[in-house]
Amino acid sequence: MIDSHLFKIANPDSIAIFGASNNFMSMGTSVLSSIQALGFKGPIYPVHPKEKSVLGLTAYPSVEALPEVPDLAVIVLPTRIVVETMDACGKKGIRHAIVVSGGFGESGETGVAMQQQLKETAAIHGIRFLGPNCIGAVNPHHHFNATFLPYGQKPGFIGMASQSGSFITQMFDYLALFGLGFSTGFSVGNEADTDIVDCMEYLARCPHTRVIGLYIESIRRGDAFIHAARRISPVKPIVAYYAGGTDAGRRAGFSHTGSLAGPDRVYDGVFRQGGIVRASSIEELFDFCWSLGTFPMPAGKRVLVQTHSGGPGAVAADACDRAGLTLPPLSDKTRSALAKYLPHTASMNNPVDLTFTRDPRDYTSAIPRLLVADENTDAVIMYMLQPPGSVRRAVEAMGFTGDDAVEAVRAYMDERSREMAGFILASEKPFVGFAYATGENRFVRGLYDAGVPVLPSPNRAARALWAMVEYVRLRKKRMNSGSL
Description:
Layout: H1 6-10, E1 15-18, H2 27-37, E2 44-47, E3 53-54, E4 57-58, E5 72-75, H3 82-92, E6 96-99, H4 109-125, E7 128-130, E8 137-139, E9 144-146, E10 158-162, H5 167-176, E11 182-187, H6 196-205, E12 211-216, H7 222-232, E13 238-242, H8 247-257, H9 264-274, E14 277-279, H10 282-292, E15 303-307, H11 310-322, H12 332-338, E16 352-353, H13 366-372, E17 379-383, H14 388-397, H15 402-426, E18 431-434, H16 442-450, E19 454-455, H17 458-481
Parallel strand pairs: 1-2, 1-5, 5-6, 6-7, 10-11, 10-12, 12-13, 13-14, 15-16, 15-17, 17-18, 18-19
Antiparallel strand pairs: 3-4, 8-9, 8-11
């Protein structure tokens, strides 16, 4: 058990939900449906003044009528009755809550006053809560999803804290494309009680979290944020995306959560002081989290690029250079060892452009092993090219037809992805793949399913490797300054 009020918010044993009904169009019903869909193991108590049963569960007319004191209250009610509901929860003995309801600090003076009243009421009873104006929390490892969208993929290792309510839920399907998932995700909303610093502290101690991702619109407790990040980042990487750096972003953030953002350069400095790697897009946020949570950290910024095609290799080389990475020449030892695998048309420069191989299996087996062992390199970027059409032609040339040919292609792709994944995950150097093919390609999907990052372009692969190099740099800087 983690010593944090967020533990029972993310790991409740029992839940009371206010605002769920048999109307499937309501937000509260959607939240209850999500809780049920992920297979929550404990009792769930819908509280409704009229309904006797809600989504097949016994409903109770008031919190006072509940048969026990639940660990968590999830409140999805009209703004005007949220404070009195929080008071009733406190009198019942409930000490943790998620307030999904909006209309508070983000909506003007009246809302600000109501938010203050909510805080004071919760404090009287010792209640700690997320929100208001949030989407909730998700912890797939606990079969817990108190958000309005279903979580359908496997539990993951990315711990997420977001100041955008629906951002976390919108990322469910996006992460599933790559075989990724959250360890725990928090939507903090207006941060009336629990803020993004509290979430960072919890995720730092969460055993399922390897890397922490932050979606930030403003930082309210600057000193606490920096001090927490300094303690956490040397042990567990933190990646942040800041959405308030422009005038348009600041205006959107204020209307969204009532928060006031600061100049972009100020946040650059805050992130650097905290040892946080900054992402420039949502795609980068998760690319960086994926890579930092999977690979060993590089010893330096020297990169070898392996490709089967000149164009993608050139793009990868250009992207590496733009990211501040270097492309050293191959060592004489590596060049000599590669010679028996490459045709005379191949290039032993960097990128290593094979054009084709005498045995196609060498591309995913012998050759990458030689490159990653090169004494001149700290990391490898590889074009994960395994087109099923070419494999199909090869197996048909061997006499396979019809369903037998289809099965032979599948078996080949599965074998290649298994061997490649095993090698990459055991490597002492980061080995970043990229592919223009999606997860519909069986080879790429096999790598995803094994937990191997394959980025959708060479540019994103190079930036992900930069993030690892940058993380190492920031960590060394913190250690050398003696400020850990």
